[in-house]
Amino acid sequence: MSTPISDVLIIGGGVAGLTLALEMADHQTVTLVRPAQDDQGASRWAQGGIAAVLSPDDDLDAHINDTLIAGDGLCDVEAVRFTVTHGPAAIQWLIDKGVPFTPETDPAARYPYHLTREGGHNARRIIHADDATGRAVVDTLLNNVVQHPNITQRNDLTVVGLLQDEQGTCRGAYGSDTNQQWHSLIARHTVLATGGASGLYRHTTTPAPSSGEGMMMAAELGACLMNLEFQQFHPTCLFDPEGPAFLISEAVRGEGGHLLNEDGQRFMLALDQRAELAPRDVVARAIDAEIQHGTLGHVWLDIRHLGKQAIHQHFPTILAHCASRGIDITQQAIPVVPAAHYSCGGVATNLQGATHVMNLYAIGETACTGLHGANRMASNSLLECLVFARSCARALLAQDDRTPAEKFQPPVFPATGPLPTATLSDIRQRMRAIMSQHVSIVRSATGLHTAQEQLKALLNSLEEVESVLAAPEGKRLHQALQLARLTVLAAQQRHESRGLHYTTDWPKQQPIAAASTLTLQDLEKRG
C-alpha cells in the first residue's frame, strides 16, 4: 500500500521530529511517523534541561568554550558556535509554544526562569521544567502538532527502511503496520529523527531505547556514519536490578549532590578539580573504577544535605520514583551506576541536517553534526535537537521548487511470515551482553576483537533464520547487529583514548584529533 506524496516525511517523534514538523507545517505537507506509545523515545525521559546562554551574567563564548573542553578536542568548532549562537532563539520559540519552564523565585535574579548548572558548565545556563524537562517539551509540542491540519501522524507503522530511486535519491520510506502489511511513504524530502543507539547495550537510561536502526537505514542508502565509537554512559542511573531503567539527572550533582564510595567517602575530589561536576566521561570512568574495586555493584549519590525543601522543589520526579522503589532520597543516599545514555556519533550531516544522500536529512541524536565531539556536555542534546530541526526547516523551505515530483514506483515487498521470537530475543540479549562487556566505558584491543568475532557469529546465525529480513523485527535486529559491528570497527581503528573512548592499550591521545567515518561498505569488506 502507498500513501499520497508528502512534501516532508519525518521518521521519529521526539523533540527534533516534533520541532521540524511544526516549523514546516505552515508551509508544506508533513507526514510524521511516531510510536503510538509516545514515551518510547529518549526525549521524554530527559530530566535535566536545555543548555543555552540566557542569563545576562553568561555569554556565548563561555558556552562555546565549555562545550569544546567537554568534547576533548574533537568538536567541530563551526558546529559548536552555530548551535550555541542559535540557542537563545530556540528557547524563546519553546516559551512561545507554551513550554512550562520552572520560574525563578529569587526577586534579585536577572532571568525570569530558574537556571541550574550541570557537569562541564561553568555557569548556570540550564533552563528546565522541574526535573522532567523532556516530558514537558514533548507534551507541549505534541499538543501543537495534534492541532495542526497540515501534519498527518502515522502511529500505526514501524519504519524499517528507506526508498531510493535509480539516481540514488531518497524517495521516502517503507514500514509495516500492526497487521504485518507493508506500506510505502513517498516524500520529496525524508528526515530521520530516530534517536541514538543506546539499545545496543544491556543497561540504559531509557526504558525502550532505539538501537541505531535509523543510522543503519541511512547507511543502507550510502550515507556516512561518523564517530560511532563515542557512546556516552551517563554516570548516574538508578541501581535497581528489578525495576525499569531510570536516570538520576545531572542536575542532582549540579545542585550539590556528592558521589560516595562504599566507605561513604567522596572520591571525585581527588580525581578532578571539578569534582562531581567534571564532564560525564570523567565521572563515569571514576564510578566504574570504584564499582570494580568494591562489592556493592554501585556507588552512592547523596543529596540529603540539601534539605527536604530543596529536594522536593527541584527533584519531584526523582523523589517520587525513588520512593516507589523504596528509597527516601531525603533520608538515604541513592545507589547509582553508569548506563548507556547518548550516542555522540551517528549519520554525518552538515549544519542543515543534510546527509551524503540526496533528499535525506538527519537531526537529533541519530545525526552527527560535530557538536559533541568525543563527549557530549550535559543538556546540549535537546539544544541540538531544537537548533538543527529549525535549521533543517529553513533549508527545506528555501528549496522552493514546487514542480510535480517525478513518479516513483516503490518495490514490491515480500509477505511477512512468523518468526521465532524467542530466537530473536536471545540474539538481541546476547548482542547487548557482548557490547556491555567489551565495548563499554573501558575497552581493550583484545576485548574489541572478541566482540567483533562474537557479533559476526550472531549476525550469521540471524541470517540463517528463514525470511528474517522480510519481517520488521528481523530487519531491525539485523540493522542493530550491523551497527554494533560498525561501532566496534570504529573503536578498533582509534588508537588512542579520547573522551568517551578509553582503551587500556592506547591510554594517551594522538597529537591531532580526527573524526572517524565509516560506511556500510567498510563492514562488507571485513566479511
Automatic annotation (TrEMBL):
Its EC number is 1.4.3.16. GO terms for biological process: 'de novo' NAD+ biosynthetic process from L-aspartate. It catalyses: L-aspartate + O2 = iminosuccinate + H2O2. Residues 7-382 form the FAD-dependent oxidoreductase 2 FAD-binding domain. Keywords: FAD, Flavoprotein, Oxidoreductase, Pyridine nucleotide biosynthesis. GO terms for molecular function: L-aspartate oxidase activity. Gene3D superfamilies: FAD/NAD(P)-binding domain (3.50.50.60), Fumarate reductase/succinate dehydrogenase flavoprotein-like, C-terminal domain (1.20.58.100), Succinate dehydrogenase/fumarate reductase flavoprotein, catalytic domain (3.90.700.10). The active site is at R280. The keyword Oxidoreductase applies. InterPro entries: FAD-dep_OxRdtase_2_FAD-bd, FAD/NAD-bd_sf, Fum_R/Succ_DH_flav-like_C_sf, Fum_Rdtase/Succ_DH_flav-like_C, NadB, Succ_DH/fumarate_Rdtase_cat_sf. Its cofactor is FAD. PANTHER family: L-ASPARTATE OXIDASE (PTHR42716), L-ASPARTATE OXIDASE, CHLOROPLASTIC (PTHR42716:SF2). Belongs to the FAD-dependent oxidoreductase 2 family. NadB subfamily. This is L-aspartate oxidase. It comes from Vreelandella maris. The lineage of its organism: Bacteria, Pseudomonadati, Pseudomonadota, Gammaproteobacteria, Oceanospirillales. The gene is nadB.
